[in-house]
Specification:
This protein has about 140 residues and is an alpha+beta fold. The chain is about 30% helix and about 30% strand. The longest helix has 12 residues.
């Protein structure tokens, strides 16, 4: 069984611990935003270790949109590299845990639709888009296996 390596940021680690420790009944909104979140579990592309990441809950059909905004930073979050290398993830939405496969969406109109759905949940994504020097913020869709 691969080792679990908690996130280095206290708030992220605490969010994951509360969410998972309660079986998905607590910690289901991201910090003080009140916006529902999910936790996805992936495999580190360099370490092979288990990684857990909280993200905004953006449902589109049977899938979930994963936005690699990294708060508008100039580089992608580490999890983006992890799921590009290992697209099979486990996603927790409240008390439900589902095996998913992630694919990156590069082309419109699908990418534009997923971005629009994401901004409807978390409008700050548009601010991150303006702030970053990256050509595009990565957008993924996680779909049931």
């Amino acid at each position: 069984m691969p080792e679990y390596i908690p996130q280095p940021f206290d708030w992220v680690r605490e969010q994951v611990e509360l969410y998972e420790g309660s079986g998905g009944t607590e910690g289901t909104t991201l910090l003080d935003t009140g916006i529902p979140c999910i936790i996805f579990t992936c495999v580190g592309n360099k370490t092979g270790a288990i990684r857990k990441v909280p993200l905004m809950r953006v449902r589109v059909g049977d899938g979930y949109v994963l936005v690699g905004s990294n708060g508008g930073a100039k580089h992608d979050p580490v999890w983006v590299h992890n799921i590009r290398a290992n697209p099979d993830v486990e996603l927790r939405d409240g008390t439900t845990v589902t095996k998913m496969r992630v694919r990156e969406v590069h082309e419109d109109p699908e990418r534009a639709e997923l971005w629009k759905a994401s901004v409807a949940i978390f409008p700050t994504y548009n601010e991150y888009k303006e702030k970053t020097t990256r050509a595009k913020i990565p957008v993924f869709i996680a779909e049931p296996v």
